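Problem statement: downstream parser choked on a complex file, so we are re-checking the raw output for the zinc ion run. The parser issue turned out to be on our end (a line-ending mismatch), but while we're here, posting the original submission so the record is complete.
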Amino acid sequence: MDIYRVAAFRDNYIFVLHNVDRGEAIVVDPGDAEPVLHTLDELGATLTAILNTHHHSDHVGGNRQLLERFPQAQVYGGAEDRGRIPGQTHFLQEGDRVPIGDGQGPAGGQRTAEVIFVPGHTRAHVAYYIAPATANDWGELFCGDTLFAGGCGRLFEGSPQQMVESLDKLRQLPDQTRVWCAHEYTLNNLRFAVTVDGTNATLQQRLKQVQAARAQDQPTVPTELGLEKQTNPFLRWDEASLQQAMNSTSTVQTFARLRGKKDLF
Ligand code: ZN
Ligand code: FE
């Protein structure tokens, strides 16, 4: 399975999962159909499924047009997004498994993406996690607008408590997980991160690398979960230094104050 990153709008990423053997593809969060159709045509692939993380238009705006071209494609999204995702056919809950049409699972069977319920950015948001095919391989996480490289999504429909619980679920995945988040927000996120976690040498080094990459217009997605755990303040709400910086004594309060500061940054 090959994963393609397709740029859309100003800073969105759409992901196309291509099964070369079958000539089939799955798309994650097609906010815009045109660049997806272009990629599918180049690959000569048939679209079999749309995986939506949440209902915002920059993630589902291309569903209808893709379904016109590929009416058989299944449309997956969170159960609580019923009525908000165009063409939705599957209403997912925590722990559900979505077939990804690849006969290379750990037990030799069909590989699946596991559904992780991550409310906070919206009340229905889900993430999709594909476990590694072999022990030394990488896992793949499609987390929409929940976890970003160096940051996290704004709280539109959820509470800080919910978002901490959601991010904690993602934080428990293996370090060797590629994080395919839906926006190129990394540079701004890290500029904020150094204002609250300024003594973190790994973070400072990462900021320099991302500044250099963005100066050459290179993408910073996917990122690696192990690096996020070390440098993303929104996965580090229980670090003593961050709690101190936020003048807080609880993890949720630390997160809430970080998120509040970031909203004004
Ligand atoms: Zn969103
Ligand atoms: Fe978005």
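For whoever reads this later: The chain has one domain: 2-263.
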